[in-house]
Amino acid sequence: MRSIVSAMLLALLATAPVQAAGAFAVDTEEGQKAGDEGYGIGWGDSREAAGAAAMRQCRKMGNDNCKVVARFDTCGAYVSNRTTYGVGWGRTEDAAKEMAFDKCPTCKLVLSECE
């Protein structure tokens, strides 16, 4: 019985989609407060595929002017304020946030995700 369960688990893992990268697409404009942005988060087997998925998700949410602002392998973060934004990536969510806030210390966290 144990070997049957192990074989079924291995088969399931072999057919599971690989999510090797993530991306954020954002629709924002100057003067908009942090958190009012429209956005999409995408995952895929490459950074390009993740970016395309993020764009689809952003547009699906009713946003017309989406652009990919970050592609990452493990974790990503997006921060913004009324005039600018910062993005970060890293092996941990904290590392991604730190990088994003280093680029925009006066920003607020809008989103962060890890694979």
Automatic annotation (TrEMBL):
Keywords linked to the UniProt accession: Signal
Name listed for the protein in its UniProt record: DUF4189 domain-containing protein
InterPro entries assigned to the protein according to its UniProt record, in alphabetical order: DUF4189 (IPR025240)
Pfam families the record matches: DUF4189
Positions of the DUF4189 domain: 22-114
Highest taxon of the lineage: Bacteria
Signal peptide: 1-20
